[in-house]
Amino acid sequence: MTSPNPSNIILYHYSYSPYAHKISYYLSLRNIPYHQVPQPPILPRPDLSNLLGIIYRRIPVLAIGNTVFINTPLILETLETKYPTADAASGTGPALGGGEEAKEWGRWSDKVFRSAVACLPTSLPVMKDPKFRNDREDFSGSSYQPDKVDANRAKALRGVEEGFKGMEEVLKDGRDWVLGGKEVSLGDVNAVWVLEWMINLPGALAGSNISKETYPKTFAWVGRFMAKVGKKRVPKISAQQAKEVILSEQKEDFGVEIQGGGLVKVAPTDTGKNHPQVGVLRKRENGKIVLEVMPPNERRTLKVVFPEEGFEVKEVARGEAKL
């Protein structure tokens, strides 16, 4: 079994990213030690693009040694399989488990999130920032202009409330956790983040019927989960320090075999597709795409791993991009 090494697990995120919460909650629940490199909520992110050559725009990304993992389900799957058992030396707890049923909760929460993100209160400071609105329009392809967001808010809130209704129905039999076990599972991690985000985002539920009184079991479950997560201080390191950690460990394999390939670009098939990641294709099997990326002004390289699901790979035409 591999023990988590706090010096080479690095999370790039920003504090109010709900998808980043999934990863930080998971790491806290299992007491996996790591470092963080906080990022701005909008592009550019030179800590990633300039220092690591990672131009893919979604947050979070997680580095383990020389390998950077993209996409939250892949990050969670990697942490579950790479560190499957408890480790007394580091204090890490066992994998949370949940199998396919836990993954289904991930798909459920992604659906609820599509409604949740559409009802962001236009009174929030970030929603008044033209740079933020333009960034999110580039990301999503949808308008973030206040009048359009407000016009769609009632419909979006109905979608969010369907999420609360669904969860209340699941919990009505008295279970503490969504999969019915005695302990929190990956199913809870995959489900809770979007509802917790809505509950704690100022003004997000204004004008809806969603409250502790209406959905008592769901609110209690969110509270139980957050009590389990607790409040842990996560050490920060500089982007330059993180770069050196990642590039200095390039001889470690981490289960990724380097093979010959051509220059390609990888992009999501839904949102964030305007910023594809460019690299040399080294492996494409078992549901994963592995690129080798050379940062600017560097001769050392890192590996960047994407899931096949939800991403597409295209060859880079001559002169289109430089690695």
UniProtKB/TrEMBL annotation:
Record-given protein name: GST N-terminal domain-containing protein
GST C-terminal domain boundaries: 98-245
PROSITE patterns in UniProt: GST_CTER (PS50405), GST_NTER (PS50404)
InterPro entries reported for this sequence: DUF7962, Glutathione-S-Trfase_C-like, Glutathione-S-Trfase_C_sf, Glutathione_S-Trfase_N, Thioredoxin-like_sf
Pfam family, one: DUF7962
Source taxonomy: Eukaryota, Fungi, Dikarya, Ascomycota, Pezizomycotina
Residue ranges occupied by any GST N-terminal domain in the UniProt entry: 7-87
SUPFAM superfamilies: GST C-terminal domain-like, Thioredoxin-like
